[in-house]
Amino acid sequence: MRAGDELPPLEIEITRTLIVAGAIASRDYQDVHHDAELARQKGSPDIFMNILTTNGLVGRYITDYFGSGAVLRGVSIRLGAPNYPGDTMVLTGTVEEVVGDRATVRVVGSNGIGRHVTGTVTVTLPVAGMVAGEDSAAGAASGAVPAEDTAGVGAAASDGSGGRS
């Protein structure tokens, strides 16, 4: 793997269930994420996905590609066009830098109205020399995954809302 390599796209159907479940799972009870009528009263055409669900989907995209032994070390994202029910978000990624066992990937998630999310993810690769896209469960079972502190990983969503959208 080297800078410039592209990850395969991941298509995610945006359903009401995904939006509401993500809001509940992240304890974001703002009505715009579960009540269509109140969302419309506030000027939105429908409910929309919160940043914490988007953050989780970006993390999933990276770990699905690099394998179960990959460890997210930093996630920095910014939201753009909302994800509404009935749309599809397509995540794409490009490796920006590889230093030792760490890679930085630029991620873009687009939907029918524009770019929903842009940002970067820094990930520790599970096993030196592993082919990207393979599951590294064997490497994780053998203890090959570094045991570094991961406190706060994934919490670096930066849209100025303090994690709420």
State the main characteristics.
165 residues, alpha+beta, 5-stranded antiparallel β-sheet, 4 helices, 5 strands, 30% strand, elongated
Short account of what is shown:
The chain has 165 residues and is an alpha+beta fold. Helices cover 22% and strands 30% of the residues.
Structural account:
This protein has about 160 residues and is of the alpha+beta class. Helix content is about 20%, strand content about 30%. It is built from 4 helices and 5 strands. It has a 5-stranded antiparallel beta sheet, covered by helices on one side. β4 and β5 (about 115-125) form a beta hairpin. The longest helix has 16 residues, at about 50-65. The chain starts with 5 loop residues before the first strand and ends in a 24-residue tail after the last helix. About 35% of the residues are buried. Residues about 130-165 have low confidence and may be disordered.
The main sheet orders its strands as: 1-3-4-5-2
In percent, how helical is the residue content? Answer: 10-25%
Q: What overall geometry do the principal axes of the alpha carbons give?
A: elongated
**% residues in beta strands:** 25-35%
Figure out the total of helices. Answer: 4
Largest sheet: 5 strands, antiparallel
CA(first)-CA(last) distance: 35 Å
Based on secondary structure, the structural category is alpha+beta
Uncertain parts: 129-165
Could you tell me the mean pLDDT?
82
- What integer value in Å does the Rg equal? 17 Å
This entry's quaternary arrangement is: single chain
Number of strands: 5
Element pattern in H and E: EHHHEEEEH
